[in-house]
Amino acid sequence: MNPQQQQTLSGLRVGITGGTSGLGLALVEDLVARGAKVAFVARDAARVLAVATQNTGAHGIVGDVSRKQDIYPIALQFTGALGGLDVLINNASTLGPVPLVLLADTECEDLEAALRTNVLGPFRLTKASLGALAAAAREGGPALVINISSDAAVNAYAGWGAYGASKAALAHLSRIWDEELRAQGVRVVVVDPGDMDTPMHALAVPDADRASLKRPADAARAIVALIEARTEEAANARRIRTEPAPA
Q1: 8 near 35, Cβ under 8 Å?
Q2: How confident is the model at residue 246 (pLDDT cuts 50, 70, 90)?
Q3: What is the residue-wise DSSP string for the chain?
Q4: Into how many domains does the chain fold?
Q5: pLDDT, tens only, 51-89
Q6: CA nearest 165: which of 124, 114, 104, 201?
Q7: Residue 16 binned pLDDT confidence (cut-offs 50, 70, 90)
Q8: 7 pLDDT band (50/70/90 cuts)?
């Protein structure tokens, strides 16, 4: 990455969930390198500290998006650490029961746990962040929510019931959010990054050919390109609003 690329998102305020491994970690690294102000959350305090130490300027938060009582503290720490919020990336996910099992063998509690992390967590955190995102939109920022999904939200894979059903719910929730919030300048998109070589994929498919899987850094670059496009779109709209009318 050349120095010009490193500053393409200078000062952009980004909050990321699940930021210490896989795609979340790759996003933290890429965004920090491009000059963004990044705050990330994860459950493991030691991993949070290690990632924050390795990525100068990133602010680590220990929390669990599946826990209702953690949501407002996370949202407050995002905005407090960053001075606002331009982009929220709901990346934290859980597979449900591991090894993967058929729906008939899935405990109700395991399905509930997947829904808490993959649906209720993003819903609650988005809701708690709406004020900051709407303020960013008024200031001409991108005001973007990115929810990470999967092809399991569309295709019916045996054994992926808890994960697939929760990601399908998240995808449709995102489409409704986008319809309802665009009048405020806030956009909500769903991104399927594809099958990646991550610890979560290894848990789901331990015998997968890792060489055939996408690298998290490649998926992160595609998501960052989306953020850059939205940031440029918002900047252009701001310029149009502030340009004096022709005489």
Answers
A1: yes
A2: low
A3: --HHHHTTTTT-EEEEESTTSHHHHHHHHHHHHTT-EEEEEES-HHHHHHHHHHSTT-EEEE--TTSHHHHHHHHHHHHHHHTS-SEEEE-----SSSS---GGG--HHHHHHHHIIIIIHHHHHHHHHHHHHHHHHHTT---EEEEE--GGGTS--TT-HHHHHHHHHHHHHHHHHHHHHGGGT-EEEEE---SB-SHHHHHH-TT--GGGSBPHHHHHHHHHHHHHHHHHHHHHHHHHHHSPPP-
A4: 1
A5: 999 999 899 999 999 999 999 999 999 999 999 999 999
A6: 114
A7: very high
A8: confident
CATH number of domain containing 122: 3.40.50.720
CA distance 166 to 100: 14
Handedness of CA 78, 83, 85, 86 (dihedral sign): negative
User: pLDDT tens for residues 115-167?
Assistant: 999 999 999 999 999 999 999 999 999 999 999 999 999 999 999 999 999 99
Residue range 203-237, pLDDT digits in tens: 888 888 888 888 999 999 999 999 999 999 998 88
Query: Could you tell me if residue 247 is inside a domain?
Result: no
The answer to the question of residue 130 being in a domain is yes
Output the CA torsion sign for 107, 116, 32, 219. positive
pTM of model > 0.85: yes
Q: Is residue 160, in this structure, part of any structural domain at all?
A: yes
Residue 137 resides in a domain? yes
72 carries an active-site annotation: no
Domain assignment of residue 149, given as a range: 3-242
Q: Are 163 and 206 in contact (CB under 8 A)?
A: no
- Catalytic: which of 63, 163, 170, 186? 163
